[in-house]
Design a protein that fits this description.
two-stranded antiparallel sheet; Arc Repressor Mutant, subunit A; 2 strands; about 180 residues
């Protein structure tokens, strides 16, 4: 069966086992494959890609990396089914140096985050008032552009212009920090 230039029997017969080797979980492998297929289908014109299988493989690699990075942010917490012995072992472990190293951010990491947040605050506060207001409503409060337009009494085009200006300012300063 061919779908957007992808042979689905190849995807499920060859690509899925390769994904399983990396994820070691059937459910995660299916999720990665389905996410990759959706990303492929949502391209502007997937039928114009000359090597869709190779392109899909690259998308799969990106999805696996994204999934790994997303999952690295979570910490497994103990469940209520622990018996008393397990709870005592967990308390001993929490007090140990290993717990502190594995789950507590390092001082360097916290300092780096604080410096980045301070730099972002300086950048955002340097924006013109309306631009800062639009950026805040869009990125922090999660309003859509039409909602911001209605709330502030400006056109959607003006909202887009303010957002573009804010993003360009952030990109320029971030690029300067990286150089």
């Amino acid at each position: 069966m061919n779908w957007f230039g992808i042979d689905l029997s190849w995807a499920y017969g060859n690509l899925l086992p390769m994904i399983f080797q990396q994820t070691r979980c059937h459910h995660s492998a299916y999720d990665v494959l389905h996410d990759a297929l959706l990303r492929f289908a949502l391209l502007d014109n997937p039928s114009r890609i000359q090597q869709p299988h190779a392109y899909l493989r690259n998308i799969v690699k990106s999805v696996i990396v994204d999934d790994h990075r997303r999952m690295a942010r979570f910490v497994v917490l103990p469940t209520e089914e622990f018996n008393i012995e397990h709870r005592q072992n967990a308390l001993i472990f929490q007090n140990s140096q290993a717990f502190q190293q594995n789950f507590a951010p390092s001082a360097e990491h916290l300092t780096d985050l604080n410096q980045r947040l301070a730099a972002l605050q300086v950048i955002i506060s340097a924006l013109p008032e309306k631009c800062r207001q639009v950026f805040w409503l869009y990125r922090i409060d999660g309003l859509t552009q039409p909602e911001i337009s209605t709330q502030l009494g400006i056109t959607v085009k003006t909202v887009e212009a303010h957002l573009a200006r804010a993003m360009i300012s952030l990109c320029v300063v971030c690029q300067t920090l990286l150089d």
